[in-house]
Amino acid sequence: MSKNNQILLDAIIKQEMENFEENIPLSDFFEFYSALQVLKENELSYDEINSGIAGQSHDGGADSLYLFVNGELVKEDENLSDKYKKNVDIEFVLIQSKYENCFSEDPLLKLSRLCRSLFDLDFDAFEFSGQYNEKILAAFELFKNTYVGLITKKPKLKISVYYVSKGVELHPNVEKQAKDLEKDIVGKLPAAEAKVIFLGAEKLVKMAQERPNDVFRLKISETPLSTSEQVFIALTNLADYFNFITDDDGKLIRHIFESNVRDYQGKTNVNNEIQDTLENPGNEEFWWLNNGVTILASEVAAPGGKELVVHNPEIVNGLQTSSEIHRFYNLHQDKIADENRDVLVRIIVPESEETRDRIIRATNSQTPIPKSSLRATDQVHRQIEDFLKPRGLFYDRRKNFYKNEGKKPKEIISVPFMSQCLISVLMQKPNFARARPSTLLEDDESYSKLFHKNNDLQSYYLVALLGRRIEEKLKKDKDYTTTEIADIKFYILYTVSCLMTQSLYPRSNQLSKLKPDDLKDAMFNYALATTYDLYRELGGTNKTAKGSKLIEALKEKIRADKQL
Fold first, then answer.
1. Which end of the chain has fewer beta carbons closer than 10 Å to its terminal beta carbon, N or C?
2. Cβ-contact 293, 343 below 8 angstroms
3. In what order do the strands lie in the sheet with 89-98?
4. Over the Cα atoms of the chain, what is R_g?
């Protein structure tokens, strides 16, 4: 049986690699695949998975690293101190992936050494610059800054170390080393819960064979009000709603909240009021004091009167309510059986994408929310999606929609990636694209330039396709590290755009007249060599890529070499 699981896992990995059309060593793909499985419940995009992979050398045993606050992936340019008020959950995930038929001590010994060094909250990254690569140091720096920055919010800290291989059995020495690693982490971070988790062939095969549930059942208190076959309004018991939004382990099912554009804001005044209502029930019904939840679906029916069958639910309004209900019952499991209060739910099957977007905008317009949150419902993004699709690219304005449809990573263009490509070319700021991946859509002036209604749709297709092709070319070239690729790819995109348009200031109307085949090998080779040489001369770090000197030097070099 054990050998069968290893045979099946080999077949799964190779088939997945073929499906993704990844022309990389099998061991490298296993790192990506491992992170995809470990973080399945976090619903990360392919770009987000790739962003955490540390590279091939000097990784200290950590092949990939991800930091989460309240279940959300933390980006390096985010300001979290204003977002969360108190009672935050921080989880730092480290993954070691070995495409081997066993678990061994050496990877755990390396991780112990890494954790003893970099979980010192006063560690100086410069002192370890030769020992660990820049991606590793940046990840631990982000962890340190996040943990220290949120320390007054009373954070609950969890360090999760996953060791993934094709192994079957654990030798006692390996188990002992895992316990020692947990002790090493707690020794540096006494407030932390540290856990080493082994994922072997049997577990990985089971995870691969699990089917995502797209049909949900919601018990309701009374026969629902239905204005048509497309709309149901009903009351559901709070405990039944808790069961609707959680999995068998009591964790929030994150993917059904993907369309909810209002981020959960932690302990705001609104959430404090919701929690107070849950903890201190009065004479008023819960649903009298709460706006309730709006759910979009592809299909909904009430076959038995007291139950709704919901296909592909998307909770587009009510994240604050849902999160507080989830938090309350996780803390008070004993109250689930006796719960008699209700929450109001509205379930709608939109007639079209336009209707869907209008519902999302309308139901999220009552309170101030981040500007970037509603951007993806703007008409221009729907137009980009429709234009790219017949051309073989899938614009993921609804995060993970095309990932769940089974599209290949290189075919999917996320809104952040599109924005980074556009700001590199149309605004000539690849340094901003590198330094501010999470906040590009916050500024109205920048947004209007990047996604102006008069911009030709061909220009969006061109920059996205070129950006993805450049990324693929760099990945196949083993001369560049993961960090270097992240640092230089948008500079290369800017340079080839200049060469193709014969201008240091490419415009949308110029790009719209071009075809992808207009990018010649000589142009790419010049862009790569020029960018990389300047990048190395100026320091060759992510600080170099995020600063202004590299783009200034690059423009000067292109101007001199190409007379632009």
1. N
2. yes
3. 72-73, 64-69, 89-98, 156-165, 192-199
4. 25
